[in-house]
């Protein structure tokens, strides 16, 4: 909605010199109305001019002092308007019958003086002729002031005697093509899911190969989990690495344990060790990693290069 405006803030923003000028003009206008009171009452448009001048001044009013002067002027203007209304004379309540008759006879083409003589002369034979002919003229004039009733018209013509013949129904062919496309869409989505699953499996196998290669070079030193999965240059790549490593842990090809410093390390699981019944109880865990945590890990462990490089970078190095 609209914000409320504090009146105090408006007073602070208003120019004091402009306010003084508006007050001076209001006082001059009020003095002029008081001194020329009789002239304003006698003139027809003098009060309107004064009100228009006050409306122009009111556009610049923004403080209470100027508004009080405007209210004082409105009281004077309302008093003047009340006195002018009392001076108006209305002839609606008075009806001059003789003047109306003279005007009506003149409109009918009859001289009022001759009509008066005919009315006095009771033996005159022209009295009926004049009265009938005069009222006929008056009736034609009054006929134009009455509204005529509109005649009835059919909106769509007259009613037909015969019923219309129904049109034969045309059978439209069904939309078989759209049904075929809808049936093909699940297969297309299935192919996309299969391709995405194949790409995930290949990436998991590649990361497992990297882990086994680093472990073969130095089997006595387990690799830090953060050094293995964290990419110091990309937070999204770090999240993807953790996602792919989780499949390796789930399938039992590697395990995560805590070293002497209670920090996680990752190491591959020997197949012979797994098949010999020397397996440990597996526990599930959820890793929560935010962007700030990723920055703190990179800074604390001083990780400068990623261990798990992207597949595209590996292809460029092998080429």
From TrEMBL:
Domain Nse4/EID protein Nse3/MAGE-binding: 70-124
Domain Non-structural maintenance of chromosome element 4 C-terminal: 222-308
Keyword terms of this UniProt record: Chromosome, DNA damage, DNA recombination, DNA repair, Nucleus, Telomere
One Pfam family named in its UniProt record: Nse4-Nse3_bdg
Gene Ontology terms: biological process: DNA recombination; DNA repair
Main location: nucleus
GO cellular component annotations of the record: chromosome, telomeric region; nucleus; Smc5-Smc6 complex
Cellular compartment(s): Chromosome, Telomere; Nucleus
Family indicated by similarity: Belongs to the NSE4 family.
General function of this protein: Component of the SMC5-SMC6 complex, that promotes sister chromatid alignment after DNA damage and facilitates double-stranded DNA breaks (DSBs) repair via homologous recombination between sister chromatids.
PANTHER family: NON-STRUCTURAL MAINTENANCE OF CHROMOSOMES ELEMENT 4 (PTHR16140), NON-STRUCTURAL MAINTENANCE OF CHROMOSOMES ELEMENT 4 HOMOLOG A (PTHR16140:SF2)
Subunit composition and interactions: Component of the SMC5-SMC6 complex.
Protein name: Non-structural maintenance of chromosomes element 4
Organism: Bos mutus (wild yak)
């Amino acid at each position: 909605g609209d914000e409320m405006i504090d009146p105090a803030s408006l007073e602070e923003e208003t120019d004091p010199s402009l306010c003084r000028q508006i007050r001076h003009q209001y006082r001059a206008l009020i003095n002029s109305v008081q001194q020329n009171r009789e002239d304003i009452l006698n003139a027809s448009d003098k009060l309107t001019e004064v009100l228009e001048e006050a409306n122009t001044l009111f556009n610049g009013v923004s403080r209470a002092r100027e508004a009080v002067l405007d209210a004082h002027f409105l009281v004077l203007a309302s008093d003047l308007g009340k006195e002018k209304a009392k001076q108006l004379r209305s002839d609606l309540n008075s009806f001059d019958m003789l003047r109306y008759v003279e005007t009506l006879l003149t409109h009918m083409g009859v001289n009022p003086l001759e009509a008066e003589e005919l009315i006095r002369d009771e033996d005159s034979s022209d009295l009926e002729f004049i009265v009938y002919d005069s009222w006929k003229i008056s009736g034609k004039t009054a006929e134009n002031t009455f509204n005529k009733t509109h005649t009835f018209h059919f909106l769509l013509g007259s009613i037909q005697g015969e019923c219309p013949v129904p049109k034969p129904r045309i059978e439209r062919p069904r939309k078989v093509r759209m049904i075929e496309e809808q049936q093909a869409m699940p297969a297309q989505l299935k192919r996309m899911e299969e391709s995405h699953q194949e790409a995930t499996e290949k990436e998991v196998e590649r990361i497992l190969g990297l882990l086994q290669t680093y472990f073969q070079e130095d089997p006595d030193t387990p690799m830090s989990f953060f050094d293995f999965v964290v990419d110091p240059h990309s937070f999204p790549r770090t999240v993807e690495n953790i996602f792919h490593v989780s499949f390796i842990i789930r399938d039992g090809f590697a395990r995560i344990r805590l070293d002497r410093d209670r920090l996680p390390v990752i190491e591959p699981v020997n197949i012979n060790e797994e098949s010999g019944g020397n397996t440990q109880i597996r526990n599930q865990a959820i890793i929560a990693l935010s962007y700030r945590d990723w920055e703190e890990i990179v800074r604390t462990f001083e990780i400068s290069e990623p261990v798990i490089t992207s597949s595209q970078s590996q292809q460029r190095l092998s080429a």
